[in-house]
């Protein structure tokens, strides 16, 4: 039988009524939902702009462009508003810190065996958050160069378009992987939806996390 740090979230189920612990506050959940909604709008509108079948189906290209531009411009806003929440700021600090246990988690994930010690966020979630933050900033910067054509010479705008398009493709692939992982972990989704998770899940998937600390 796998040890708690080795078992997957779905491999341990409580036999009786499950004790529930708070994982996210309301402010944190709304930051996630608003960011996800804006990101979804950006992805869908980008698809309508670059994929001919969708472009023909939707039409109204000028409107789609405007929606895409303003959704992209608003993308950092939920995070900036979330900074008013102490819990959200605390989670950002946790996401920004890698420890020895995170290196162990990454090695085990790459080998698909071994213990996976994790605090409130595992190493994969920390890498995802860092990658997404960097990608959004690059997309915002290159998008502004494409939107306001007088900001830079033609050569810069051409490079910005190249980076924006290919990073958008990479972002779509990584987002699909993120959604796939979420679909495979109902308890993690419940935590993001309600703010609470089962104690059994916390002990199994995040054994180093001490709720309430």
Describe the protein's architecture and organization.
The chain is an all-alpha fold and about 210 residues long. It is about 70% helix and about 5% strand. It has 10 helices and 2 strands, in the order βαααααααααβα. It has helices at about 25-50, 50-60, 60-75, 75-80, 85-95, 100-110, 125-145, 155-185, 185-195, 200-205, and strands spanning about 20, 195-200. It has a two-stranded antiparallel sheet. The chain is elongated, with a radius of gyration of 20 Å. Residues about 1-5 have low confidence and may be disordered.
Helix coverage percent: 55-70%
Which value, in Å, is the CA radius of gyration? 20 Å
- Helical region count? 10
Q: State the total count of DSSP E strands.
A: 2
Strand order of the largest sheet: 1-2
Structural class: mainly alpha
Mean pLDDT: 87
Distance from first to last alpha carbon: 30 Å
Shape: elongated
Characterize the main sheet.
Answer: 2 strands, antiparallel
Q: Secondary structure elements and their pairing?
A:
Layout: E1 20-22, H1 26-50, H2 52-58, H3 61-74, H4 77-82, H5 86-95, H6 100-111, H7 123-147, H8 154-183, H9 186-194, E2 196-198, H10 199-205
Antiparallel strand pairs: 1-2
Feature tags:
single chain, 213 residues, mainly alpha, two-stranded antiparallel ribbon, 10 helices, elongated, disordered N terminus
